[in-house]
Amino acid sequence: MQDKIHSSYKQLEQKSKYTNLFLRWFLYLVLVVFAFYFIFPLYVMVVTSLKTMEEIRQGTLLTWPSGLNFDSWLVAWGGRGYGAGDTFLKPYFWNSIKMVVPAVFFSTFIGAMAGYVLTKWRFKGDKWVFLFLLFGCFIPYQAILLPMARTLGVLGISNSVIGLVLVHTVYGIPFTTLFFRNFYVSIPSELVKAARIDGAGFFKIFFKILLPVSTPIIVVTIIWQFTQIWNDFLFGSTFSFGEAAPIQVALNNMVLSSTSVKEYNVDMASAIIAGIPTLIVYVLAGKYFIRGLTSGAVKG
Amino acid sequence: MKTLKIEELSKNFGSTEVLRKINLEIDEGNFLVLLGPSGCGKSTLLNIIAGLETINEGNVHIDDYNVSKVEPKDRNIAMVFQSYALYPSMNVRENMIFGLKQAKVSKEKIEEQLEKVSKFLQVDALLERKPSQLSGGQRQRVAIGRALVREPRIFLFDEPLSNLDAKLRVEMRREIKKLHQQLKTTVVYVTHDQTEAMSLGTNIAIMNHGVIQQNDTPENIYNKPSNTFVADFIGSPSMNLIKGNLKESSNKVSFVTHGSNIEIPINGYGFKEKSNLDNKEVFFGIRPEHIFFKKSNEEDFEINLRADLSEYVGHEQIMTFNFENQEVLAKFPSTVKIDLSKNTKLFFDLTQISLFDAKTEERI
Questions:
Q1: What pTM did the predictor assign?
Q2: Looking at the predicted structure, is the pLDDT value of residue B123 above 80?
Q3: Which CATH number describes the domain made up of A90-295?
Q4: How far is B93 from chain A (nearest CA, A)?
Q5: What pLDDT is recorded for position A297?
Q6: Secondary structure (3-state) at B219
Q7: What does the angle CA A218 – CA A221 – CA A222 come to, to the nearest 5 degrees?
Q8: Nearest residue in chain A measured CA to CA from B70
Q9: Which CATH number fits domain B240-357: 1.10.510.10, 1.10.3720.10, 2.40.50.140, 1.10.820.10?
Q10: Is the separation of the CB atoms in B268 and B284 below 8 Å?
Q11: Which candidate, A4, B64, B178, B242, has a CA 20 to 30 Å from the CA of B335?
């Protein structure tokens, strides 16, 4: 009887071993398939941007380029050098930088302040304020186009980088406030009490005590806001044109307005250039993100 | 002059009443413990003393000066929190001198204070460390140090030991006691732990539902609880409260439970008012540690009760007896052998009993 039970345990053990092995390999298979699926478009973009037009016409999408040919990248960035009708990314890239940096800074800063007030300096009706701010997260972009255009007109900053900074700051505040509020809720209010007894005021507590431990959420907010604002096309195309346009609008103009032949290599290079800054932010900030998460926390 | 005086203080959050007409006084150098179950308002009271909460009615005086509308930093108090509330981005030194820097104390004075306090609390080797690199006990010391450097008139402690493990808690409790003995500063200490309260306080104020139930010395709180709440709250296991009636005949008073003919003579009891006692419905209160297995003094009352349950806890055992269908708990040394489901001869020490009116639940 005992032996019988033991031998059946052995069988079960074997069986579970095979099942686990199978599942593991199946998992890898699925992962590999998805990895290919996601990397494929990037591969096509990079490869195409390095080809000449001749190569593109003759080969297929997947063919390897004959050599490292960065001509189309140079054209995408700096143009061909002849006068009218030559659209290239350089000036618009700087437009985007000029728009993104202040917009990310202001929206993050205001969000941090608002989150601090909503959690550590509770006031009558603070829940409603937060609710309305949350509501701001759910308003679709399209709904605010007209009122915003009017506002920018009244302020006299339509079709300017400053106007776009304002739009993105205002539209970002609900999100940044939400991030910071949820982060500060988890920081013990006793810290604020202790600081008040020590004689620190509203701003001192914010800058000296809360902000230094906020690195993880600041990084999360910056990644989010940077990506949102850099990649935005709708606000950019609605509230600016010509000289003041951000890079995404310029990219669109470039690709659509080429009169003669479709230059796929230049288009691909431009698209990659337009996407590089967000990649850089992810790579750089991601590192600080992990560091912030592991070092800052002091539990009670 | 009272170091701290609270008059007719009331506080409500919206429609919930948290504190009702609190009156408290502390003399210089005393250690007052605010003790009560969670939600009784003790922490709110402490926050009000600190100035972190506003007052709805009443006043708080520190050294005869009405501080009800004074900012926390100007009240000459310091507070130690449950989570220690050390500033995570600053090292121990910066944490300890943060308050003095805010108060614009001179550099030399700050250094002097820091050195004195950090030596005293043995944290002088930790000054450059961040709070996250400290153990629980060290954080506790730094938090106390941060309070000490300010040389406050009153120390406020908000459950400072509840985040520590059991062993460390006992150690830190002794350190706080020593600290108070050496410094003789006035202390207000909030806790829900009765052992902490009993061992630390020179005075204990027991609170429930925003009202102070009894404010007295630890001895009186333990021996003469002013109502059934206090009697029940203090002691582990808590006081046995046996329901019954008083019987008065020819100047002799005795206690009888319902459906029993056992009369417990209580002539020696110090009644507050010795009238209208006959037939009064009362709770007869006796602590488990005042029920004995052997007769220890002449007046002990002998009684036979059936043992129902035994709980062995190492150094002692807690026995549950049946007294006319009411449970009576008693504590004995664990060496005593008692048979379950059998009648056992027990002795009540009648000098240690308390009697409460069954209706008002107040001591009589």
A1: 0.82
A2: yes
A3: 1.10.3720.10
A4: 14
A5: 44
A6: helix
A7: 85
A8: A197
A9: 2.40.50.140
A10: no
A11: B242
